[in-house]
Amino acid sequence: MLASGVREQIRAADPALPVTVTTMDDVLTASTGRPRLYAVMTGVFGAVALMLAVVGIFGVVSYVAAQRTREIGVRMALGAQRREILGLVIGQGMRPIAAGICAGIVGAVALTRFIGTLLFGVEPLDPLTFGVVIALLMAVGLVACWIPGRRATQVDPLTALRAE
Question: What is the pTM of this model?
């Protein structure tokens, strides 16, 4: 190895001189290790938070739709179309999601100065990043509301009216 030859030549010239040979990969890993760890941890925590949000939204919208089974049955008995019922459930679920996204944007803009040191190649207020995140959250929220909404459209009006 080249390092051992260099080390021998330096020791031959001055045996008291300390010789440390480090590869560029080791230097790069040492200098970017901590920011890389923070980025991975932030990504993992973000993914877990997204999954918790999906489960929470799905649970709340499912619960609300189940509580409104009688109302949905009456609406369907009076002639409401399935798409109207679906729109009702999705609309009711998406309002708080839209409010949460707005509050999240305000919070993210306020906190960008704290995470600016962790960003590489992205500006703290990058519009593309904000747009992609908003679209992702809206899509996830829409799917989490669509599933219970779809289930609500399957309600049999007679069964719903007889319930309770």
Answer: 0.69
